[in-house]
């Protein structure tokens, strides 16, 4: 799995902004960048690694008695439940997905990470995939010609895992039952090629499950990892550990004695059980403490962070009021950009505008 390249123009523009900032602000920005870059390992890592191991076992048995199971993995959860961040970490740290040079001098890319294009048609999936593989294509290529070419280039670049993020758009962009079945059939063909084994990882929110539920063959060839919300009763100890990890280990700061009692449950309630939002709130509290010139995170920093995120009044702050359970859950959940369904953990940034025939990017 390859990391996104840094754009020279962007680096230059950011450097110009840095030159206008106070040293204290730069110190906080750089410190938070290190905090935000840290991965928070949870019980979900183990669950995903088990699923990835199933795909790998199926892959190595491709020519030696593979029973056709475990060829597709569905990862389904609400927006900002941590799906993308979780799978990117596992793929980035597993040696099986590291690029290598083949015997004929080609840079192999074992895992191709493909954010779902917009609109997420079969033609656009193959077109974006070929572009990421570094293969120039003509915009006039039809779907019937571009998919054989895409499959050929997957083999050439030794891609054995195809990870499509925000894959629910394959359902949303194909409205009719005929179009959706066409997507299913194309994906089935992809993982059933006798000459080249490919395993497919589809990550997204509902209605992604419709790709599986409506087809018995896909259901028999796939497994599902559901990333549900964290709950007060079951996951409060986990959230307490996340606070300690981010504050004490990642930020190297002190932590006040306020995590006893119902405080972790308040965090879960504030974020609607959304893992990504919980992590953001904790990091926001760290930044709030740094901005206040303090090196110890206290309850007041969570209160201020929550107020900044939600715009709530002091009387309706979930971290200070007694009747916090009466508040609507999820007020601190990460909000979407207009039209977005992002997971908050990707590094791809905004998708470029699709070019018309004859156009070129500047």
Topology of this structure?
Layout: H1 8-18, H2 23-36, H3 43-60, E1 72-77, H4 83-93, E2 100-101, E3 107-108, E4 111-115, H5 122-132, H6 143-156, E5 161-165, H7 169-172, H8 177-191, E6 199-204, H9 209-213, H10 216-220, E7 222-227, H11 232-250, E8 254-255, H12 263-270, H13 275-291, E9 296-297, H14 299-310
Parallel strand pairs: 1-6, 1-7, 4-5, 5-6, 8-9
Antiparallel strand pairs: 2-3
Helix pairs in contact: 2-13, 5-6, 11-12, 11-13, 13-14
Characterize this entry briefly.
It contains 14 helices and nine strands.
Strand order of the largest sheet: 4-5-6-1-7
Structural class: alpha/beta
**Helices and strands, in N-to-C order?**
HHHEHEEEHHEHHEHHEHEHHEH
**Shape annotation:** globular
Instruction: Name the average pLDDT.
Output: 88
- Rg on CA atoms, Å: 23 Å
Note the gap between the termini.
27 Å
What level of helicity do the residues show? 40-55%
Helix count? 14
DSSP summary, beta strand count: 9
Low-confidence stretches: 337-362
**In percent, how much strand structure appears in the residues?**
5-15%
The description of the largest β-sheet is: 5 strands, parallel
Describe this structure in words.
The structure is a single chain. The chain is α/β, with parallel strands linked by helices and 362 residues long. Helix content is 45%, strand content 10%. The protein contains 14 helices and nine strands. It has helices spanning 8-18, 23-36, 43-60, 83-93, 122-132, 143-156, 169-172, 177-191, 209-213, 216-220, 232-250, 263-270, 275-291, 299-310; strands spanning 72-77, 100-101, 107-108, 111-115, 161-165, 199-204, 222-227, 254-255, 296-297. A five-stranded parallel β-sheet has the order 4-5-6-1-7, with helices on both faces. Helix 2 (23-36) runs antiparallel to helix 13, helix 11 (232-250) runs parallel beside helix 13 and helix 13 crosses helix 14. The longest helix has 19 residues, at 232-250. The chain is globular, with a radius of gyration of 23 Å. Mean pLDDT is 88; it is low at 337-362.
